[in-house]
Amino acid sequence: LRAAFPYFAAIDERAAAGAAAALAPAYLDSAATSQRPLAVLDAEREFLAHSNAAVHRGTSGAVGAATGAFEGARSLVAEFVGAATPEQIVWAENATDALNLVTLGIAEANLGNGVAGSERFALGAGDEILITQAEHHANLIPWQRLATKTGATLTYIPVREDGTWTIDDARAAITERTRFFAFAHVSNVTGFVAPVAELVELARAVGAVTVLDACQSVPHIPVNFAELGVDFAAFSGHKMLGPNGIGVLYGTPEMLSALPAARTGGSAITRVTMETAEFMPPPLRFEAGTQPVSQVVGLGAAVGFLTKIGMDRIAAREHELVERLVAGIEELPGVRLLGPSDTSQRIALTSVAVEGLHAHDLGQYLDEQGVLVRVGHHCAQPLHRALGMASSTRASVHVTTTEDEVDRFLAAVRGAQQYFGMEVSA
Ligand code: PMP
């Protein structure tokens, strides 16, 4: 499989040629961004070389072909995440942008720039927006802004000692005044998997709209938004073997048609006068301006690649890797695993804090050993604060990860403890 990725093929070639293992990087940072298979790079290149054109405008055959590729990718992505129709898939720049499309759209609805059905999003003093303390800043700051704009109150589910939270914690935090409930499917720090369907049920009971940050789930496990019952969901192409610069906002037809466009301009309209504009139905209403067509085509190819392997197989393979990581970490004295030790409650990544060792020192040592991980707060400062630390070290996997890479990470953490003179009894 690694041979299908130019990035890994080059590393493996070097290793096979006898280069020192430390020089062949162990890429354990797919949670930040994943490497792209040749199928994706080829699809982008092929499109740009032979079919490049701006979509949905003009009458030429070239535009028709580009539009076909663009809309074809939308259908593939829709099917991949269980959307009933392609119109439920809105292109955005990334997950951050997709989440902002929701919060900025709600703000527009409350500023009087609504569309039919926007009353659904009325928000004001006394209303509550519920999130969790474990959110990535992308699913926190946009809600802070929306609360400030509308006078609503931002409330949150606090995390427990291990960074997780339960359905009972959610039950205690949700109220009759909760209008929106936004949470990550999978935490990018703890790997904890939220019980989405049950949470949606809680939200529905109080009439709250649900917004799922699916950044760390869609690339790794089978995800069906319709079955989960969420109203909106967001994810990024670059974490699922696809291109940068393309993300997805999923919405139910009811929600998307009631949401005003946060960004306006060309392409997204039906009739414009000097005073007014009328907008297209979703998804085109949200896609003002010239679109990133080659990225969309690349994302379609990434979905095709993942589907060909099978998301069930990918999930099973990554589960083995995470079990190996968790078991290895738990054997290391002085190393604290963030998130649940029960591997049935987590996927895709592990973060650790090493007693007496700053994450950046550890990161630098790992880097010198050729082990590529992520150190810092991972855009989740409140979560780290709740866990009693400023930063942590995260190793994340994808379907290309090998046991050897996992073992090199574990050995290098141990090596760092020795290098920095930690007194840890084995
Ligand atoms: N949410 C989560 C859980 C993430 O892991 C990330 C990426 N680190 C984001 C949101 C933001 O994704 P992007 O930077 O692609 O917009």
UniProtKB/TrEMBL annotation:
<dbReference type="GO" id="GO:0030170">
    <property type="term" value="F:pyridoxal phosphate binding"/>
</dbReference>
<dbReference type="InterPro" id="IPR020578">
    <property type="entry name" value="Aminotrans_V_PyrdxlP_BS"/>
</dbReference>
<protein>
    <recommendedName>
        <fullName>cysteine desulfurase</fullName>
        <ecNumber>2.8.1.7</ecNumber>
    </recommendedName>
</protein>
<dbReference type="InterPro" id="IPR015424">
    <property type="entry name" value="PyrdxlP-dep_Trfase"/>
</dbReference>
<dbReference type="InterPro" id="IPR010970">
    <property type="entry name" value="Cys_dSase_SufS"/>
</dbReference>
<dbReference type="Pfam" id="PF00266">
    <property type="entry name" value="Aminotran_5"/>
</dbReference>
<comment type="similarity">
    <text>Belongs to the class-V pyridoxal-phosphate-dependent aminotransferase family. Csd subfamily.</text>
</comment>
<keyword id="KW-0808">Transferase</keyword>
<dbReference type="GO" id="GO:0006534">
    <property type="term" value="P:cysteine metabolic process"/>
</dbReference>
<feature type="domain" description="Aminotransferase class V">
    <location>
        <begin position="27"/>
        <end position="409"/>
    </location>
</feature>
<keyword id="KW-0663">Pyridoxal phosphate</keyword>
<dbReference type="InterPro" id="IPR015422">
    <property type="entry name" value="PyrdxlP-dep_Trfase_small"/>
</dbReference>
<dbReference type="InterPro" id="IPR015421">
    <property type="entry name" value="PyrdxlP-dep_Trfase_major"/>
</dbReference>
<dbReference type="GO" id="GO:0031071">
    <property type="term" value="F:cysteine desulfurase activity"/>
</dbReference>
<dbReference type="InterPro" id="IPR000192">
    <property type="entry name" value="Aminotrans_V_dom"/>
</dbReference>
